[in-house]
C-alpha cells in the first residue's frame, strides 16, 4: 500500500484532508478544527510473501482501521493498495468477495462461531459457502480440525469448548479457505495468559509448517516481538517505525518508540549480530560457534560455559566474536563500543 489514508468525519471535509495543511495536526486539534478523525495517515508498506507482519500500537492508534482497509471492509479515503500487483481499489463487488473469501481471510477476536453446529460443521462452513461438495468439505474440515490440535472434539458444539479451543475452531475455519494471507485482528486478547501463549505458539507452528503470509494486529508488545518478522508500530494513525523486532528494540526511531520498548528484556530480542566485534588474530577459529540469529541470552550461556569469547559463524564464515563485555553492553542498553557490530 502506498500513501493510504482513512479519515472519518463529514464526507467533504474527510475527502479534502489527505495532503492538506491540516493533515498533520494532533488528533484532538484536528477534530476540533475539521470534525474529522484521521485513523490512518499516509501509511506505506509492503507485506512480503511468507512473513508475519505485525501491526502494533496502543488503543485508538488506527490498527483495526488499517487492516480493515486492506480488504476494503473499510473504504480508504486516499492512497493506493494492491495484492499481487492487482489494484484492490479498482475491484468490483465480485472480485472483492473473492478477495475476502479466497485470498485474505480475516480471523477476528470474536470468531462468531455458529452455536448450533458442531466443530466440524463450523470449519466446513467456510467451504460450504465456496460451493465445495459435502464429502470433500467434511474430509478437508476433519484434516484442519486435527491440524489445529482439536482431534477428538469435532462433534462438540462451540458452547462445550474452552475459549482457546473456540479460537482454534475459528483459526481452522479461516485456514479452510486456504487464503494467501491470514489477517488476525487481536485474536487472542480476550484469552487468559497461558492459553494466549499456547495460541501464539500454535500460530507460530502453523506459520513455520506452511509459510503462509500473516498480518497480525496486536496492542501487546511481547506478542508482537515473539510473532513478528517485521513490526509496524503505529501512533495516531501513522507508522512511527517499521522494522524487525531487533531493529525496533535495538534502534528505536524516536523517544516514543524508546519509551515503548523500555521494559523489553533486550537479551531475549537482540542477537549476537548486535553484540559482536571483529575477531582478532587467532579468535576466528577458537571457541564455541553461534549462528547469527542466536539471542544474546543464549550467547551469554555459551560464553559463561566456555569461559571465553564465542564465534558468530554463518555458512562456515566467521562474522565476528562475542565476549562478556559486548554481551553485557547489550543487556545494559549501552551503545556498542567502537568496532562492535562490524563484520570482520
Ligand atoms: N467508524 C468510525 N467513525 C469515526 N471514528 C472512528 C471510526 N472507527 C474508528 N474511529 C476512530 O479512528 C481511530 C482509530 O481507531 P481503530 O479502531 O483503528 O484503532 P485501534 O488501534 O484498532 O484501537 P483498538 O486497539 O482499541 O481496537 C480512533 O480514534 C477511533 O475513535
Write out key terms for the chains shown.
binds adenosine-5'-triphosphate, CBS-domain, Gly-betaine_transp_ATP-bd, single chain, disordered C terminus, Rossmann fold, 344 residues, 40% helix, alpha/beta, Glycine/betaine ABC transporter ATP-binding protein, 2 domains, ABC_transporter-like_CS, three-stranded antiparallel sheet
SSE inventory with pairings:
Layout: E1 2-8, H1 11-16, H2 27-34, E2 37-43, E3 52-57, H3 63-70, E4 78-80, E5 82-83, E6 86-87, H4 93-103, E7 104-107, H5 119-128, H6 134-147, H7 163-176, E8 181-185, H8 193-210, E9 213-218, H9 221-227, E10 230-235, E11 238-243, H10 245-250, H11 255-260, H12 266-269, H13 272-275, E12 289-290, H14 296-306, E13 310-314, E14 317-322, H15 324-332
Parallel strand pairs: 3-9, 3-10, 7-8, 8-9, 12-13
Antiparallel strand pairs: 1-2, 1-4, 5-6, 10-11, 13-14
Helix pairs in contact: 5-6, 5-7, 6-7, 7-8, 14-15
The chain binds adenosine-5'-triphosphate (ATP).
Keywords: ATP-binding, Nucleotide-binding, Transport
Protein name: Glycine/betaine ABC transporter ATP-binding protein
Pfam family, one: ABC_tran
